[in-house]
Design a protein that fits this description.
about 75% helix; mainly alpha; DUF4244; 3 helices; rod-shaped; DUF4244 domain-containing protein
């Protein structure tokens, strides 16, 4: 009878299990990272940053 009680304890122990909330949060974070990666790799962002840096370096204090 003691073995059966031990097995029930092992089978019904939820400690350490991931919940659906953690899984969905991880999936959403990965999707957001993918979207941000595609935006950054796009030419518009690189051109905008380059323009800002060029303007900042070419302007003289006045």
């Amino acid at each position: 009878m003691k073995k059966m009680t031990q097995w029930k304890t092992v089978l019904h122990d939820d400690q350490g299990m991931s919940t659906i909330e953690y899984a969905m949060g991880s999936l959403a974070a990965a999707a957001l990272a993918g979207v941000l990666y595609l935006v950054i790799k796009g030419g518009a962002v690189v051109d905008a940053i380059e323009s800002i840096i060029t303007d900042a370096l070419s302007n003289t204090p006045g």
